[in-house]
Request: fold
Amino acid sequence: MRSLSTKYSVYFNKRYDRVGPLFQGPYKAVLVENDNQLLHLSRYIHLNPVTTKDSPLRITYSSYADYLERKQTLWLKTEPILSFFKTAQKTKLRDMLSYQSFVEDYNHDPKETLEDITLD
Reply:
């Protein structure tokens, strides 16, 4: 990761005539120890672009459309997450067994759920 980051920074700085680091800090990793953490991390990642409760999920810039089975990226494996749910998309207004409902109908701050496994 460091080599990739350094090479990209050099390229970007030359191309845009600038100096200095592009990223805030070093790459960090956390061991996901159980299925509950995996599911909450998946939801957190897909909700990350949302800035307010009323802002729509931007599925064109993330893998969320793959998880809703609206597109298919060959290298992306959605089965480990989707296997926990009955369907990918909501089929009814109150469909609580879909991945879409799991992500979009979540009322809590995901940082509270994930605080035990974050690094900072």
User: Anything to note?
Assistant: The CA atoms of residues 51 and 57 lie 9 Å apart. The chain has a mean pLDDT of 80. Residues 31-114 form one domain.
